[in-house]
Amino acid sequence: MTRPVVVGVAGRDDAPLRFAIDEARRRGAPLRVLHCAAMPFEQMEMYVSELSCREMLAAGQRVLDEAAGLVREEAPDVPTEYELSTRTPVDLLVEEGATAQLLVIGIEDIPWCDRVLGGAVAGHLARLAPCPMVAVPQVRDDRSRHEGVVVALDCTRASDQLLRLAFDLARHRRCPAHALTVIPEGSTPDDIDDTRVVLGEVLAGWREAYPEVRVQQHVVVGAPDEVCRTATQGAELVLVGRSRHHGFRRPLAVSVLRHVACPVGVVPLDERRA
């Protein structure tokens, strides 16, 4: 059975759902549309009445009904399931990610309880999601998107999952792929030249596999999170990898998600050295 594309909807913006519909159609995959009530029932009963709980669930069902209307209008051929859950968004989506091929959420979809209980859903999923995820901001002006798909690469680690997704998306969108490697402040011109050579070697096989995709290389000196956030200003999509073992350091994927201007994809990487 083909694994689904899973999208969490909150009802304030349909950009994440439209992105998920496009990906499900491109992949020939079913779509699962999820909406979470504000808090799990066992916690809600401590604070609000049973009537308020029913009203909250009814409001959640209206969100799903609106999503179903959009799916019927834009993708009646995509097999779609809907689920209204009383679990927290992070718990539900992490579990769904175990059997999904892609998770899609809105960056600003942060219920008040998640602010109290630990922060933004997108940030948590960037650290925990077992499959690739894409976080879609609410405010987007696609008229200024001219730089294609940007993929941030660490040339010292294997990046097959990340590069495959980047080239697939660039081919589907008929736009260029920009391979971006960031090196530390204080790097010399020789460091830049050496990194450019390594980056070219990493990309060589992918250029052959995707001859229709125009590829540009960029080696930039600076802070990786700042450089990647700047890239979101003109890109259609920015992709970053996430190491499974980042210790106590904040992963780049989490830092990049602050104040972005286009969808950002986060892909779990294996630890095999390139």
How would you describe the overall organization of this protein?
- By secondary structure, the chain is of the alpha/beta class.
- It folds into two domains: 5-136, Rossmann fold, CATH 3.40.50.620; 142-268, Rossmann fold (3-Layer(aba) Sandwich).
- It has helices at 15-27, 41-44, 50-74, 89-97, 112-117, 121-128, 160-173, 189-209, 224-231, 252-256; strands spanning 5-8, 31-36, 80-85, 102-106, 133-136, 149-152, 177-183, 215-221, 237-242, 264-268.
- Mean pLDDT is 85; it is low at 40-44 and 109-119.
Terminal CA distance:
32 Å
- Beta-strand residue fraction: 15-25%
Please list the strands of the largest sheet in the order they lie side by side: 3-2-1-4-5-10-9-6-7-8
Order of helices and strands: EHEHHEHEHHEEHEHEHEHE
Count of runs of 4 or more consecutive helical residues: 10
Cα radius of gyration in angstroms? 19 Å
Query: Considering DSSP H and I runs of 4 or more, what fraction of the residues is helical?
Result: 40-55%
| CATH 4th-level superfamily of the largest domain | HUPs
Question: Would you summarize the structure shown here?
Answer:
The chain has helices at residues 15-27, 41-44, 50-74, 89-97, 112-117, 121-128, 160-173, 189-209, 224-231, 252-256; strands spanning 5-8, 31-36, 80-85, 102-106, 133-136, 149-152, 177-183, 215-221, 237-242, 264-268. The chain is an alpha/beta fold.
